[in-house]
Design brief:
- The protein is built from five helices and two strands; from the N terminus they run H-E-H-E-H-H-H.
- The chain has helices at residues 12-18, 29-34, 50-58, 61-78, 81-94, and strands at 24-26, 42-44.
Length: 97
Amino acid sequence: TSPQMSMALNQRVFDIPACGGFVLTERRPELEELFEIDTEAVCYDGEDNVADAVSRCLAAPAKRQAVVVAARRRILAQHTYEHRLRSLFAHLKAEGV
């Protein structure tokens, strides 16, 4: 994750699983608010742990696939652009805009 996005998730966290791919990403509080860690998202804690996390993921193809399926299900149910727009419009309406 880039330093410019210290308080946000990269779009790849949504796009790749939505297309059926697996993502290993840096642990962030924002990710933990949107996905169930180790079930819908797999993370590493700091650069020193990337190699170990990659090895664990490569050694468990069935778990990777299960994470992809769960992440895709969550994304399609809660994190599409339609969901974001509905949320934005609801917020604007609540603010009287």
